[in-house]
Structures are given as structure tokens and as C-alpha cells.
Amino acid sequence: MKALVYDGPGRRSWTDRPDPEILAPTDAIVRIDAVTICGTDLHILKGDVPEVERGRILGHEAVGTIVRIGNAVSAVKPGDRVLVSCISACGRCEYCRRGAYGQCLGGGGWILGHLVDGVQAEFARIPFADTSVYLLPPAVSDESALLLADIIPTSYEVGVRNGQVGPGDVVAIVGAGPIGLAAITAARLYSPSSVIVIDKEPARLAAAKAAGADVTVQPSDAEAAVREAGGGLGADVAVEAVGVPETFELCAELVRPGGRVANIGVHGKPATLHLERLWIRDVTITTGLVDTSSTPMLLRMLAGGHLDVSRMVTHRFGLQEMDEAYDVFAHPQDSGALKVALFRE
């Protein structure tokens, strides 16, 4: 089969790899029908995630068809159309029993495209299939379902839910990439009074406006805009959706006393935490890896027409065009790409 392989920092190749095999009775083999690229994959290629070994097949977001299952798998069968979650769950450990699948102690968590081969390939082995894939209703398209593999549950759980967004809140979202746009959609579920999105790129600010942001501004104008919306106090919730020191530090400046900073971004470098200013302001800072415990609920909302993800995918490719898709996704300032989707031809 063909697969996208990490060859070390700055190097990748779409190349031949052996077809995956069942290695454990809880495994399933999935034919990949649709797949996408995540900002985390770009962090890996930069060398920001040193746990990823050379030769690893990347990718952790896909929709596919079950082709084989291990003898312990009972929730899915060959022929089933499924969403492959970015998080795998053993279903038995202490963390899985409380729905914190991202912290799985039994060999799960974020492993696809990280600690084991991922889904940017023609076929993929999915560990713990019973608790790590989701049957898709016919009403949900492959493209829409792709967005529930990672970015929608991530923005909902790590951004909006961790940030405790509530009715009437002023929400500042720093970063208008795919995660930031998904955070707008997720925040809107809780009726905030104002959603302010900050980004350097005019095209992404336009996308944020189309996705439901009330105000879109450049970083240089962020503090004034957020203070105006917050009655001079700042944001109730500041969501970091980029993963660089400057954006985290901006969130800490934008949040009001008693507010919350919800960090979603994957950071490859240290950020300065100004506790000398924050300690007296009762500011809460949360971080986290998505658990995907919300995925069944979000799937029901998507199937029922109550979750709009239609604007997220801007570029579409065949699976064999993986290299071109990476180039487009990695240079959004030139391509205007938000989320890319690749389909089996």
C-alpha cells in the first residue's frame, strides 16, 4: 500500500509500505476512504514531537470501511463505515472508565500517527476497535465526519468546555485556523455575548467572520477590541488555538480577573507565564489533550443538522495527491487553506 511516512524533521515521503496486519485480537483493519491533515502533523514534521520515530506513518483523522477484525472485536464488523477517532481507548483502565480516554493507561491515548502507524495511508490498523471507532449514520458524509475525528471535539472539550464558556460570556479566540474556527462553532452552542477572533492573516479573519465571529481583529488591535466588548475588563474566556509562545502570552493579557485561559494549541517551545501579574487576578489556566468523550453527542448533533461544519474544508484531493495536499496545508498564507480532505479515488 501507499502511505505518508515521517523521515525525520523536515522530511516526509508518500511511499510503499506493507499492508497492516491484525496484531492483537482487539484490532481492526480499516480501508481509508477519507483522511485529513492536522496542524499536529506539521508540528511533527518540524521536530516538535520527538516521540515520533522515523519511519512512522502519520495521521490520526480518518473515515473508512472495516475490512478485517480481530476475534475479540464485537462492536463493528467488515463492511461497516466508521469514523476513526484521533484518540484510542483501551476501555478498561482508570482513566478510560471515567471517560478521560486521552490519558489511557492501557496502551491508548493519542497513539495513531504518534506511537503507532497512523491513517494517512490506503489501509490502517486500529487498536481497541470496539472503543476507538464510531459507526457513522448514512446521513453523515465522509467529509463532515472527518471533522469529528479531532478538531470539533478538541475545540469543544479542550477549548469551550475546559474554558467553561457560558451564556453572556465574552470569548476571545486567538488563532483562526481550523481549531480556532471549530472553537467558534463550539462556543456558539453556549450563547456567548461576543466572540472575538484574533489572527494575522486577513483570509483567516474573513473565514472566522463567515463562521460566526462577532469581531475579527489583528493582534495589534486585540486588547482594545476585547476590552471594549468586555466593558473594560477583558475576556471571560481566552482560547489559545495556535501553539506558539506569543499567542499563549496574548491570551493571558486578554483575560479578565476571574477569567479562564483555555490552551488548545500544541506547543513546541516554552512560553513565559507571568505569574507576577496573574496570581492576584484569580485567573484559571487549563491545558489538555482531547478525550473524544463528546464524539457520540457531536455525531448526533451533526446527523440531526444542528452542527454546521460545512465551511471547514477548503481544498480536496485524491489520496494519491498526499504530497500536494501537505504543501497546500502547510502554506495557508499562499493557498488560503483551512482544512484539506483527501478521498480514495
UniProtKB/TrEMBL annotation:
<dbReference type="InterPro" id="IPR002328">
    <property type="entry name" value="ADH_Zn_CS"/>
</dbReference>
<feature type="domain" description="Alcohol dehydrogenase-like N-terminal">
    <location>
        <begin position="25"/>
        <end position="129"/>
    </location>
</feature>
<keyword id="KW-0479">Metal-binding</keyword>
<dbReference type="GO" id="GO:0016491">
    <property type="term" value="F:oxidoreductase activity"/>
</dbReference>
<comment type="similarity">
    <text>Belongs to the zinc-containing alcohol dehydrogenase family.</text>
</comment>
<feature type="domain" description="Alcohol dehydrogenase-like C-terminal">
    <location>
        <begin position="178"/>
        <end position="290"/>
    </location>
</feature>
<dbReference type="InterPro" id="IPR013154">
    <property type="entry name" value="ADH-like_N"/>
</dbReference>
<dbReference type="GO" id="GO:0008270">
    <property type="term" value="F:zinc ion binding"/>
</dbReference>
<protein>
    <submittedName>
        <fullName>Alcohol dehydrogenase catalytic domain-containing protein</fullName>
    </submittedName>
</protein>
<dbReference type="InterPro" id="IPR036291">
    <property type="entry name" value="NAD(P)-bd_dom_sf"/>
</dbReference>
<dbReference type="InterPro" id="IPR013149">
    <property type="entry name" value="ADH-like_C"/>
</dbReference>
<keyword id="KW-0560">Oxidoreductase</keyword>
<keyword id="KW-0862">Zinc</keyword>
<dbReference type="Pfam" id="PF00107">
    <property type="entry name" value="ADH_zinc_N"/>
</dbReference>
<dbReference type="InterPro" id="IPR011032">
    <property type="entry name" value="GroES-like_sf"/>
</dbReference>
<dbReference type="Pfam" id="PF08240">
    <property type="entry name" value="ADH_N"/>
</dbReference>
